[in-house]
From TrEMBL:
It comes from Hominisplanchenecus murintestinalis. This is Shikimate kinase. It comes from the Bacteria. Keywords: Kinase, Transferase.
Length: 168
């Protein structure tokens, strides 16, 4: 399939850049977190608190299976932890062009400071938590990437232009 899929760490801009890219290309946009919240009728933080992380990860896999059935090309933002499961990695490759939005931990921390909507970052010092999770994930993101875009110090328009050049 020829969807464009945005991956990367929390705060790299998948949801906001994805929406801007879809608007620029006049294509539909979907965000796996939004699909999950709609289908569950509750917020991500409530899903984590009430049902646990494993339950949420299972929902991510189910959503990917739904997306694999959609024919029309879409811009797809996924949750930052979705690429960790091996089965999801296989699905992401099948979906289309994987774009890895990159950002340094300091940049991510500045963007996510004070945000309480991301359960994986709650409790503990923000920068340390970002580094720990990044250590476990960046190899996975890099291994999946067809296109890599550095986002530090760039605004949405610049990032959109860069992605459109390679994946438009
Ligand atoms: N390139 C950027 N420049 C400035 N702020 C950004 C940039 N990318 C993302 N942000 C901000 O960081 C926060 C997280 O962005 P979001 O799109 O939700 O990321 P993700 O979906 O990857 O977690 C938002 O407040 C967003 O406005
Ligand atoms: O990295 C993660 O494990 C998560 C990232 C979040 O999405 P964003 O990357 O869009 O913040 C969301 O799926 C959930 O809070 C878990
Ligand atoms: Mg997001």
């Amino acid at each position: 399939m020829n969807h464009v899929i945005l991956i990367g760490f929390m705060g790299c801009g998948k949801s906001s850049v994805g929406k801007a890219l879809a608007d620029a290309l006049h294509e539909p946009f979907v965000d796996t977190d939004v699909l999950i919240e709609e289908q569950e009728g509750r917020k991500i933080s409530d899903i984590f608190r009430e049902s646990g992380e494993e339950y949420f990860r299972e929902l991510e896999t189910l959503v990917l299976r739904q997306l694999l059935r959609s024919e029309e090309r879409q811009i797809i933002a996924v949750g930052g932890g979705l690429p960790v499961r091996p089965v999801n990695q296989k699905y992401l490759k099948q979906l289309g062009t994987v774009v890895y939005l990159m950002a340094q931990p300091d940049t991510l921390a500045a963007r996510l400071q004070g945000d309480d909507t991301r359960p994986m970052l709650q409790g503990g010092e923000l920068k340390r938590r970002i580094r720990e999770l990044m250590d476990a994930r960046e190899e996975i993101y890099d291994g999946l990437a067809d296109v890599r875009v550095v986002t530090d110090g760039k605004d949405f328009a610049e990032i959109v232009k860069e992605i459109a050049r390679y994946a438009g």
